[in-house]
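Field reference: sequence -> structure
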Amino acid sequence: MATYTTEIASDKLISDNPIHQRLLKAYIAAKPWIKGSLLEVGCGEGRGVEILLPLAENYLGIDKIGEVIDSLRARFPETRFQQAVIPPFAQLEDSSFDTVVSFQVIEHIQADRLFLEEIYRVLKPGGKAIISTPNINHTLSRNPWHIREYKPTELAQLAGSIFDQVEAKGIGGNEKVWEYHAANRASVQKIMRFDILNLQHRLPAWILRMPYEVLNRLNRNKLHKEQGNAVVDISHEDYLLMDDPSEGLDLFYILHKA
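Structure field:
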């Protein structure tokens, strides 16, 4: 039985529903750009595989966790999955994919420039990559699972130094989404008021991971108890693709290779 961290977010835990739907939206928003040979970098437990498969001629999903790959191979026996620690993408040839998607991954990668360079390398000429990552301007506290988070201009500048064109968009939401986010922010701030020494930014990430998990899970359960249907009723349709990335909880960028 899978153990879900708050970082992964489960489609099976009701209190995780707003986060799950937000992550699912990236796959749905990416559909217009999916074609040909498709690579997903960081496929995780396969949240969007069923959305992507009908749109691509072929699909390869890679992830670092071997157990996840084994589970996906059992669920999708006719689909390719590989275990890989990236970057680099050592097993993949130059110019071999029409499309690459990578959602909520780059913030976990120490060598983020190499990560994007490798995506550019494996794309065919004329190919596109679609990536998403949290917008740090809307982050509620330090996430010790993340190496870094980006402002919209920071990611645009990094990607623009590698790719030939960058379309910068965001995953935002309607009033229902922002009301949940505001309640979440208020709840987190009540917890963080006890951090008078600003330890969340001073301690090493590995020390913070366990208390982060405990407090984050307690907070999500608390919000579910207090808001009830406001948590359950949020769907991917409540999350919106925004032309202005600053309006997004997540950055959603389409990267072009000429």
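Note: Strands lie at 37-41, 58-63, 80-83, 97-103, 123-134, 165-173, 239-242, 250-256.
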